[in-house]
């Protein structure tokens, strides 16, 4: 497992609640750290097997171009897109830094950081697997009968089973 990072992606964006920020925009730096399984990519030397820098950059660019009131919303948008794009994502950390925020004095930067860990342990076989723990999780698409789902929740709680265990119950 390895961390892959893109640091200091610079954008001029129009986030914020103040009129000046919305009209003139502010300079931002975005840092993304991604933990993913890269064994297959290293063995094959193929870029499509790993988390691709260009895709990370484009995801950040798309979210930065969308003006938001809060940096927190920008962070959530980047994380949601990254999860959707890279199925091998084990953990992610995203930091958005606003340079020289207009606070009436000299301030270098203000930043907000969010991190999320998607490695969970399957409640049936105890194997580690990727689970987002919310409605966006891959397991929500598993073809399970409603009655089977209820039995699983009674037996294992709402924690997701791993892919091979889900397959045992899918019809
Ligand atoms: Zn399992
Ligand atoms: Zn899940």
Topology pattern, helix = H, strand = E: EHEHHHEEEEHH
In terms of DSSP E residues, the strand content is 25-35%
Structural class: alpha+beta
Uncertain spans, ≥5 residues at pLDDT below 50? none
CATH top level assignment of the largest domain: Alpha Beta
Helix content: 25-40%
Q: Do you know the CATH architecture of the largest domain?
A: 2-Layer Sandwich
Corresponding CATH superfamily of the largest domain = GTP cyclohydrolase I, C-terminal domain/NADPH-dependent 7-cyano-7-deazaguanine reductase, N-terminal domain
What are the bound molecules?
Answer: zinc ion
Mind explaining what this structure looks like?
The structure is a single chain. This protein is an alpha+beta fold and 171 residues long. The protein has two domains: 2-117, GTP cyclohydrolase I, C-terminal domain/NADPH-dependent 7-cyano-7-deazaguanine reductase, N-terminal domain (GTP Cyclohydrolase I, domain 2, 2-Layer Sandwich), CATH 3.30.1130.10; 132-169, no CATH class. The protein is built from six helices and six strands, in the order βαβαααββββαα. The chain has helices at 19-24, 39-44, 53-64, 71-85, 146-156, 163-169, and strands spanning 2-13, 26-36, 89-99, 109-117, 119-121, 128-130. The strands form two sheets. Strands 1-2-3-4 form a four-stranded antiparallel beta sheet. Strands 5-6 form a two-stranded antiparallel ribbon. Strand 5 (119-121) and strand 6 form a beta hairpin. The longest helix has 15 residues, at 71-85. It starts with a strand and ends with a helix. The model has no long low-confidence stretch (mean pLDDT 87). It binds zinc ion (ZN) (2 copies). Residues 122, 124-125, 127, 161-162, 164-165 line the site of one zinc ion.
């Amino acid at each position: 497992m390895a961390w892959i990072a893109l640091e200091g992606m610079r954008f001029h964006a129009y986030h914020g609640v103040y009129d000046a920020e919305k009209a003139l925009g502010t300079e931002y730096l975005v840092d993304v750290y991604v933990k993913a399984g890269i064994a297959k990519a290293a063995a094959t030397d193929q870029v499509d097997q790993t988390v691709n820098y260009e895709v990370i950059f484009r995801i950040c660019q798309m979210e930065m171009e969308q003006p938001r009131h809060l940096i927190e919303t920008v962070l959530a948008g980047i994380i949601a897109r990254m999860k959707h794009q890279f199925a091998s994502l084990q953990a992610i950390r995203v930091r958005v830094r606003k340079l020289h925020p207009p606070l009436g004095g000299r301030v270098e930067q203000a930043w907000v950081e969010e991190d999320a860990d998607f490695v969970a342990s399957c409640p049936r076989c105890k194997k580690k697997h990727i689970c987002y723990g919310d409605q966006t999780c891959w397991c929500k698409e598993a073809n399970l009968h409603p009655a089977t789902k209820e039995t699983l929740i009674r037996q294992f709680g709402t924690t997701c089973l791993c892919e091979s265990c889900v397959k045992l119950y899918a019809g």
